[in-house]
Amino acid sequence: MKPVFYPVALPHLHMLDTAQCEQIHLAALEVLRRTGVRVHQDEALRLLKEAGAHISDTNLVRIPAALVEWALQQAPSYVGLCARGSDQVVVSLAGRNVSFGPGSDCPNYLDPRTGEKRRFTTQDVIDCIRLVDALPQLSFVMSMGIPSDIPAATGSSRHNVYRHQFALMLEHTVKPIVFVCDDRTDCEAITAMAAAAAGGLEQLQRNPTLLLYSEPTSPLQHSRTATEKLLFMAEHRLPVVHSPAPMMGGTAPASLAGGLVLGTAEVLSSLVIHQLKRAGAPFIFGSGLHHMDMKTTISVYGAPEFQLARIAVAEMGQYYGLPTWGYAGHSDSNVMDEQAAADATLSVLVALLTGTNLVHDVGYLEAGLTTSPEMIVFTAEMIDFGRQIVQGISLDAEAMALEVIHRVGPGGDYLSDAHTLAHFRAFWQPMLFDRRRADAWQAAGSKRLGERLRERTLSIMESHRPQPLPDAVKEEVQRILAGAS
Length: 485
Prior knowledge:
The protein has helices spanning 18-35, 42-50, 65-74, 122-134, 159-172, 184-198, 201-206, 224-235, 256-277, 304-320, 338-354, 373-390, 397-400, 402-408, 418-423, 438-443, 449-463, 471-484, and strands at residues 8-9, 37-39, 54-56, 60-62, 79-82, 89-93, 99-102, 108-110, 117-119, 177-179, 210-214, 221-222, 240-242, 247-248, 283-284, 290-291, 325-327, 358-362, 364-365, 370-371, 393-394. It is α/β, with parallel strands linked by helices. A four-stranded mixed β-sheet has the order 3-4-2-12. Helix 4 (122-134) packs across helix 17 (449-463) and helix 12 crosses helix 17. The longest helix has 22 residues, at 256-277. The protein is globular, with a radius of gyration of 24 Å.
């Protein structure tokens, strides 16, 4: 009998089936109907009231299921992000496409030159941005650090910091930018800078190069400033992920199911507000569900429960047909060590196997307080490693190689066969891992992975220079910074 060839066999990671996603969805609808959310912003309250939500006690909003279902029908299932100055989509947020990038706003920097942990400076932020710009495994940029040498960085106003962070990213990478900011006025200034680089606001809307990351407040609250940012992005049809960070045992029930229900209710209530402002505006589904370690009181990143939460959140976003937001390349470790490497590897594989679309926090150590350039470079290697796994194995006639097996025959030699020449390059080759035998490794200096990682990180940071920003755009950015400060 002639064999039947199937094109490819893919590995799968699956947890919630459709009925279980429906169960979580209905529970979240019940939270919104019965318990409600606090909304501390007047325009959002007006929009909700006009749409049929029930408001009591000034700002307690109970949202009917029909309004949630309406909002879900309006939001697009696809969002594309473009490179600076281009109309070509380089980050496609749809289906099971997975794009990785770093995190934002760590106060501490683990200097690969000295091994010292210290406060971020502007030059450190620039070095990190250039590093991410150079790594093809990373598709977007976040600020990674809070530069301590920018005026007002330690004061009550953070405007100067967030706007300067964005200006640094705009200048030192062509990759799409996921930004954070303080309030609507920050959004206005940052959007104006991005529009200057894009050739105007209309061009930016058509070919978006930025995405806002913001958060409601767990449990079940929408602050004035966060809601104003959400409304601004909707009004201008620019993409946003408005992702809560419920912490099981602190700001959420101490169970994965309870935290998932709470976080889903918070995301859905955000989506309702967002779509009421402008139906069809781009919105990414995400919930940073963590748990509190009762021994240390930290919000844990390197835990099996955190990875289970990532799977569940991604599957809920896919159930809703929305682009999804996730985490990878992070650790609770304080240094780039074996613990950090294990956390990075597992989290990358989970993100790839679940098909989470936009995956951030590559390079985070100390549960999000420290950025390590070496962790970024190591995770990039693990992204290549993981992609090789999730692409599965081909089962077509060429891969099954029946004619090759017959031609070589028993006791034959495949090394010199044309099939080997055609296919051996498909096997993954590491940049950091060393496969040499002990004698060859010792002859080359006996360097451990950490030494090779440090050398590669510094080499990239010191040699890579991104495509420059046009002088006219630089001048406009500086004018915006001066006028908005």
